[in-house]
Amino acid sequence: MALLEVKNLSVTFKNDGIFSSEEVKAVKNVSFSLKKGEVLGIVGQSGSGKTTIGRAVLGLIPYEGKIDFKGNRISCMFQDPLASLHPYLSIRKQLLDIVPDEERIRNLFKKFNLDYEIIGKKKPSQLSGGQRQRVIIIRSLLNEPDLIIADEPISMLDVTLKMWVLKALRELKETYGLSMLFITHDLLTTKYVCDRIMVMKDGEVVEEGTLEEIFTSPKKGYTKELLEAIPKV
Ligand SMILES: Nc1ncnc2c1ncn2[C@@H]1O[C@H](COP(=O)(O)OP(=O)(O)O)[C@@H](O)[C@H]1O
Ligand SMILES: [Mg+2]
């Protein structure tokens, strides 16, 4: 049974200008489903409609089509970590407010290579971008969500930290069976955490398949282009 079932999702934005108004079809007739414990990568260039899908699933914007979520809680990790933390409270205080279980918080900090004793005492503005982003990820895991929407959660991190965070997410997925929509413009990062991948272009699904299918036998030219754009090391 699917945890999340999205059928024929379409989102249209109206941009009202002074002399005219234009409609932007950000998402066109997109369908997919997600099983419990599964990670679906939503991949595409900037402007392809990925964030809009996430916002529709969260119920933040009007949409056409059907979104069926069979869980209780969705939590999200967004691109802008500073905006989503409380500016005046210490990290320790704001995390304990979510779950009064310091041991659990400490373990997650260890997993994401952060020193709880030092970082916990600080306020968001006193952290580096990479530290803040990891705190956001930890926070979104604390309330035991049924579904996580991760919208470019690691795009602002440098390469070494990216690998750390991807590794931690993969371990958490294996241990707790996280269900996640992993939104990214970077096909390479999906390789470490995703079970399936949906490739988007101009609001439409280009192709969907298992990680292996997409990486070893992509059917569509656009997917091949994305694969070829990955730097070879
Ligand atoms: N609130 C909005 N109002 C008008 N247009 C929007 C709005 N949000 C997104 N769009 C447009 O919808 C399209 C898809 O955007 P988005 O979902 O943010 O893409 P992505 O996350 O893949 O970069 C883009 O053309 C974008 O300009
Ligand atoms: Mg986006």
Layout of SSEs?
Layout: E1 2-16, E2 21-35, E3 39-43, H1 50-57, E4 64-69, E5 74-77, H2 91-98, H3 102-111, H4 116-119, H5 129-142, E6 147-151, H6 159-176, E7 180-184, H7 187-193, E8 196-201, E9 204-210, H8 211-216, H9 221-228
Parallel strand pairs: 3-7, 3-8, 5-6, 6-7
Antiparallel strand pairs: 1-2, 1-4, 8-9
Bound molecules: adenosine-5'-diphosphate (ADP) and magnesium ion.
Pfam family, one: ABC_tran
Domain ABC transporter: 4-227
GO molecular function, one term: ATP hydrolysis activity
Shape: globular
Reading the helices and strands in chain order gives EEEHEEHHHHEHEHEEHH
Strand percentage: 25-35%
- What structural class should be given to the helix and strand makeup? alpha/beta
InterPro entries: AAA+_ATPase, ABC_transp_ATP-bind, ABC_transporter-like_ATP-bd, ABC_transporter-like_CS, P-loop_NTPase
Protein name: Peptide/nickel transport system ATP-binding protein
Organism: Desulfurobacterium atlanticum
GO molecular function, one term: ATP hydrolysis activity
